[in-house]
From TrEMBL:
<keyword id="KW-0479">Metal-binding</keyword>
<comment type="similarity">
    <text>Belongs to the iron/ascorbate-dependent oxidoreductase family.</text>
</comment>
<protein>
    <recommendedName>
        <fullName>Fe2OG dioxygenase domain-containing protein</fullName>
    </recommendedName>
</protein>
<dbReference type="GO" id="GO:0005829">
    <property type="term" value="C:cytosol"/>
</dbReference>
<keyword id="KW-0963">Cytoplasm</keyword>
<dbReference type="GO" id="GO:0046872">
    <property type="term" value="F:metal ion binding"/>
</dbReference>
<dbReference type="GO" id="GO:0016706">
    <property type="term" value="F:2-oxoglutarate-dependent dioxygenase activity"/>
</dbReference>
<dbReference type="InterPro" id="IPR027443">
    <property type="entry name" value="IPNS-like_sf"/>
</dbReference>
<keyword id="KW-0223">Dioxygenase</keyword>
<feature type="domain" description="Fe2OG dioxygenase">
    <location>
        <begin position="183"/>
        <end position="287"/>
    </location>
</feature>
<dbReference type="Pfam" id="PF14226">
    <property type="entry name" value="DIOX_N"/>
</dbReference>
<dbReference type="InterPro" id="IPR005123">
    <property type="entry name" value="Oxoglu/Fe-dep_dioxygenase_dom"/>
</dbReference>
<dbReference type="InterPro" id="IPR044861">
    <property type="entry name" value="IPNS-like_FE2OG_OXY"/>
</dbReference>
<keyword id="KW-0560">Oxidoreductase</keyword>
<keyword id="KW-0408">Iron</keyword>
<dbReference type="InterPro" id="IPR026992">
    <property type="entry name" value="DIOX_N"/>
</dbReference>
<dbReference type="Pfam" id="PF03171">
    <property type="entry name" value="2OG-FeII_Oxy"/>
</dbReference>
Amino acid sequence: MTTDFKSIPIIDVGPLVAKGDDLKMGQDPSVREVIKQLDQACRETGFFYVKGHGVVPQTLMNDVKDVTHKFFHLPLSEKLKIKMTPNTGYRGYQKIKENITKGVPDLQEAIDYYREVKRGMYGSLGEILEGCNQWPKEPANFKASMEEYIRLCTDLSRKIMRGIALALGGSADEFEGEKGGDPFWVVRLIGYPGKSAAIPQNNDIGCGIHTDYGLLTLINQDDRITALEVKNLSGEWVPATPIPGTFVCNIGDMLKIWSNGTYEATLHRVINNSPKYRVCVAYFYEPNFDTLVEPLEMCVEKSGGARLNQKAVYGEHLVNKVKNNFVP
């Protein structure tokens, strides 16, 4: 359960990543220390910084933010060439205030990408997300940079999830196979106008209060602009101040269910009070699209038999969110 944390912990996942392909990695003392820190962070804050991963080069982390900035500064007519609609499988660009959180338009623009879904791949469950991602022609290196970034974030997330699986008392591959061996992913590129931008607005919320939908999120945010805030048990908003070279990592709704509430999907929001335009490249690592998520028996036993009264088919959970998150 989330506590009255005052700061977000920093975890050097280097040992975990180095041994991440070895299912016996939990026997290594340095890996066990990382597992201990992951367990504490997931129990107490639901958020933590990831450093020392060595998987996604700093140059690539910077590059994807750079091309995101360049895209959002193109003329609107260019950005609308990849406009998101239901016919595009909800993939593509949304203008400022077209994204909605709990009924309120957000002060942001964005591009959404999903793992591509072929026709009939998930039956009726996946129909609205069927389609191919829309890639802009400019900047020229946009598509190549993003695809490499997604590939590497998927690998890093899998290894972090192996550490979390061990922290919960399972095998390293607990969240693979039928649960997440064929993981879905979502990437959302978000641009938040600066405070001084001449944009008519009724509020300054870049992204309203929410939890994430899946397993694990890797947030690659602009340096020197603090905008992401995380809510502690007392209702205080703790800033996720950018630390160069790190990801901000948080857990989502599906991991809360699987852990039987042992780990919390923590509420968070974004308010950009800086005069500078801010971007965030958010990568979401998810379960298999059609898997049923319900409390793991080992987590129920650790809770004395008390069972969290929640379960969900991940793809259904995602689709319901997608259908309610955008202006028609």
